[in-house]
Amino acid sequence: MSLKWVKKASGEVVEFDESKLKDSLFNSGASEELIDQITNTISAELSDTSTTRSIYKRAYQILRASSQKLAGKYKLKNAILELGPSGYPFEEFIGKLLNYQGYEVEIGIEVQGRCLTHEVDVFAHTDDQLIIGECKHHGNSGYKSDIKTPLYVHSRYNDIVNGLKSRGEKRETECWIITNTRFTTDSEDYANCYGIKLLAWDYPKKGSLRERVEVSGLYPVTCLFSLTKKEKQILVDNHVVLCQQLTENPSLLDPIDSRKHSRVLQECRDICSASF
């Protein structure tokens, strides 16, 4: 069988890897039969101009025709890409994931360091731990945060920690850098050397951003296909970033056409329910 090639979002041309498509479909909760059906269809339709984006769109189209719930879960990566163009919705989304783990979270606050005042994207804490997090949201899934990011963030973190300690802070502190895409190998090596926690779409292998969302069931409202892009933006602008927020407080849908409310809420309940 001849090799088939596709173009990634970064522009790199790679061999089509059927197993990656199957893994992404499996993670949405699709059955083995449906996974095989979608994979076989896409493999047969591949051409010289196929891209990973076109493959995703075709898989999403077939999946949606089979199950709205599975389609919403499959859309997760792109849904997080849509938490922009400003970084604030992404920061709020990360804050909700940390809330789920028991942290009290503040978003976008100013913290006095030893030398300078810094804006901290995510300031999460428990009685004995403090996370100082920097969020890097990108609209292109092919973008990687390079070594300049951990170098810059680490220096700011050190100044902040020195300032906090001078004012009597005793809790264990951690530096986190969170992105919705990926890090370069140099970034990962530097972070591992200095004990910086990196969180990306598929990094680390255990506890990645994708895994945290799937385990918690905290799916972003941008997963919903019952809402238009404009309607999603209205919700995000009103600090509604989770489907769960809508199920717990349906009045948050008031800015949206009331005729859509029951359909949106049902989709939210479907997406947030367990996959397996």
CATH architecture of the largest domain: 3-Layer(aba) Sandwich
Percent strand: 15-25%
Q: Termini, distance in Å?
A: 34 Å
Weakly predicted, low-confidence segments? none
CATH class term of the largest domain? Alpha Beta
| Chain-averaged pLDDT | 92
Largest sheet: 5 strands, mixed
Number of DSSP-assigned strands: 9
Across the major sheet, the strand order is 3-4-5-7-9
In one word, what is the shape? Answer: globular
Given the structure, what is the number of helices? 12
Classify the secondary structure makeup into a structural class: alpha/beta
CATH third-level topology of the largest domain = Trna Endonuclease, Chain: A, domain 1
CA radius of gyration is 20 Å
Helix content: 40-55%
Helix and strand string, N-terminal first? Answer: EEHHHHHHEEEEHEEHEHHHH
Q: What is the domain total for the residues? A: 3
Helices and strands in order:
Elements: E1 5-7, E2 13-15, H1 18-27, H2 32-45, H3 52-66, H4 68-74, H5 76-81, H6 88-100, E3 104-112, E4 117-125, E5 129-136, E6 144-145, H7 148-166, E7 172-179, E8 182-183, H8 185-194, E9 197-199, H9 209-216, H10 229-237, H11 243-248, H12 261-272
Parallel strand pairs: 5-7, 6-8, 7-9
Antiparallel strand pairs: 1-2, 3-4, 4-5
Helix pairs in contact: 1-2, 2-3, 3-4
